[in-house]
Design brief:
single chain, 402 residues, alpha/beta, eight-stranded parallel β-sheet, six-stranded antiparallel β-sheet, 25% strand
């Protein structure tokens, strides 16, 4: 009995010593692809291999995308010892073989579980099996864990997510930990020491500006609604800990090309994780050009790690500002309405000050050159007011460099 207690004490001591998330991961917002928005529960190893093949060769990997994440419904049953197994019909080669395949493409592999007894899709959750599941993921070589919040009656979010953080640390294999708690328990107040990103809202819905009632207390939100929900959260984000407004709907067929461009641009202004959610195997050139615009992605991936903020709203146009490294700035003019809107921004009469980043854009004393990030064209300097027309449900996005 003494030996057993000593062993248990040692295990608890090791777990306690590792009770922190893996550092040096997600120093910029994670980029990748997740299966849920397009496929929901219709996942299998062939689809995942095909998506990995495409990401590795279509320019997305070169643009910075690296994670292939299987969402809900990959699970089979637990074995007699309680260890989770993949669905044998959908993943006949086993999860380790699939992880190895994704790694062979120079990409990283992500998986999904839930803090409750079951996942949102009714598969086995991790409650009571956190250390077993973390050990299994480490053995498979998993690099990213999305951890959901269904069937969690009686649990407190901070404690439940901290338990899985500790389990991942004990397993010893570095994992980016994505908290999918929907913002209910305000994870931005406590999650920076628990995970690398945390959901700030309910699920995204594939529309420009709507609220979708899922039944019960659950609702999903269109692109504009989610953007508005980020107000007041920017001070909690930074390298290694990011606000997550959910996966993207770019390429899923219901947004217009201009709305897709605006959706992507605003996620970059928000320093949000860029997790594509479309079928990469059947993607038109326009969608691919949005997802792989390196100049826009550079705003999201900027090493300063500061989330942008809304400076002003006039008529239907929001002006968003994001300070960047090396003294640069990004500005995004978002037209929320359907009609085109002309804009004029006079740098001398509209100074920009960011209290949080302690940065000033003083264009009257420093001249910046302006580049349009969607057209790729130079657009003069701050010596003159910036003028443009913003099409309906679209953006004009510029970068200022000294």
């Amino acid at each position: 009995m003494k030996t057993g207690l000593a062993g248990l004490g040692l295990l608890m001591s090791v777990a306690s010593a590792q009770a922190q998330k893996f550092t040096r991961l997600a120093q910029t917002p994670p980029m990748g692809w997740n299966s849920w928005n397009k496929f929901a529960c219709d996942v299998d190893e062939q689809k995942i291999r095909q998506v990995a093949d495409v990401m590795a060769t279509n320019g997305m990997k070169a643009a910075g995308y690296e994670y292939i994440v299987i969402d809900d419904c990959w699970h089979g049953k637990r074995d007699t010892l309680g260890f989770i197994q993949p669905d044998k019909q959908r993943f006949p080669s086993g999860m380790k073989a699939l992880v190895d395949y994704v790694h062979s493409k120079g990409l990283k592999f992500g998986i999904y579980s839930d803090a409750g007894n079951t996942t949102c899709g009714g598969r086995p959750g991790s409650r009571g099996h956190e250390y077993q599941d973390a050990t299994t993921y480490a053995q498979w070589g998993v690099d990213y864990l999305k951890y959901d919040w269904c069937a969690t009656d009686g649990l407190k979010a901070e404690g439940a997510y901290s338990t899985m953080r500790d389990a991942l640390g004990h397993a010893g294999h570095p994992v980016v930990f994505s908290l999918c708690e929907w913002g209910t328990a305000k994870p931005w107040l406590w999650a920076s020491n628990v995970g690398h990103l945390w959901r700030t809202t309910g699920d995204i819905y594939n529309c420009w500006d709507c609220v979708h009632d899922n039944g019960g207390d659950s609702k999903s939100f269109g692109v504009l609604r989610i953007i508005d929900m980020q107000e007041g959260l920017r001070q909690y984000a930074g390298p290694g800990h990011w606000n997550d407004p959910d996966m993207m709907e770019v390429g899923n067929g219901k947004l217009t090309p201009s709305e897709e461009r605006a959706h992507f641009a605003m996620w970059c202004m928000l320093a949000a994780p860029l997790i594509a959610g479309n079928d990469l195997r059947q993607m038109n050139p326009q969608t691919l050009s949005v997802l792989t615009n390196k100049a826009v992605i550079a705003v999201d991936q900027d090493p300063l790690g500061v989330q942008g903020f809304r400076l002003a709203t006039k008529d239907s146009v929001d002006t968003w500002v994001k300070p960047l490294a090396e003294g640069d700035w990004a500005l995004c003019f978002l037209n929320r309405g359907r009609k085109p809107q002309p804009i004029t921004f006079d740098w001398k009469t509209q100074p920009i000050h960011d209290d949080m980043a302690k940065r000033d854009l003083a264009a009257d004393g420093t001249r910046y050159k302006i580049r349009n990030l969607w057209t790729g064209r130079e657009a003069g300097t701050t010596a003159k007011p910036f003028r443009a027309e913003v099409p309906g449900h679209d953006v004009v996005m510029i970068r200022l460099s000294k």
